[in-house]
Amino acid sequence: MAKQTTQFQFFKSRHIPELMVLKAAMNDFSYDFHAHEEYAFGVTLSGRQDFFSGGQFHRSPPGNVILLNPEEAHDGQPGGDSTLGYVMVYVSPRQLEALFADTLGRESAGQFRSDETLMSDPALRQAILELARLVTCQVGSRIDQEHTLYQMAAGLVQRAGKFQPDGTSSRPDALLKRARDFILAHLEDDVSLDDISRAAHLSKYHFLRLFRQQSGMTPHQYVINCRINAARSALESGAGPNDVAFRYGFADLSHFNRRFKRIYGMTPHQYQRSVASYPRFLTCWKLSPMPWA
């Protein structure tokens, strides 16, 4: 049985504010079902990465690339007895949409959504690992990071064969967007299921079925997820964990700690200290030779 070891390190880019890298090693931790506002590009380094996303259960061995679209619900845990090691790069949609447009030679491209979650793509894998290295080691310049992001965007467009932006919305999509917009506008309020379903112009029971079907989460899970994401931004801006907990409707700091840790692997205080202090205590990330390299 592998020794219990779980470590999470977050690194914010010095050059691109909406770019973050997570380096993780875990075998005694499982993520709650959640979703990120950003694109998430991952590479499994060791062990096996098991997770549920997009209505399917996935198993990612070392060398595989993982791509999660914005708002794509997922969980995650180590598979088997070996320690899971992986790196994840989080990039805001705004940052990538401009790169998608440049790749296509357009003024704008809209939001790209990949149909692939697991990929065996050496070029994309190398670009992700290189970007993670640039951020965690604080080497290179802004143009180095932007160039690597451009390589990632171009690789995705090429894999898709043709670019199909997520631009056309069906009526259910439009109604659920109203619900999501309402939730985001009232994160600090005590909203009810009735409030949200009314904002979507749907009956409560129809809304519940439709929301779960399209988002992969219940409305309650989605509200908590959005509050945690907003809380993370507030922590990065320097707000105290106690203030953040009460601002976003958590019963107390203990409740906030539990919810936050199930998604980010550490308490709000640990996360805030990690992001704020890592330039002073930076340990550069170096990859050992991999069998798939």
TrEMBL record:
Signal peptide: none annotated. SMART domains: HTH_ARAC (SM00342). It holds the Pfam family AraC_binding. Transmembrane segments: none annotated. Gene3D superfamilies: Homeodomain-like (1.10.10.60), Jelly Rolls (2.60.120.10). Coiled coil: none annotated. The keyword Cell membrane does not apply. Residues 177-274 form the HTH araC/xylS-type domain. Keywords: Activator, DNA-binding, Transcription, Transcription regulation. This is Helix-turn-helix domain-containing protein.
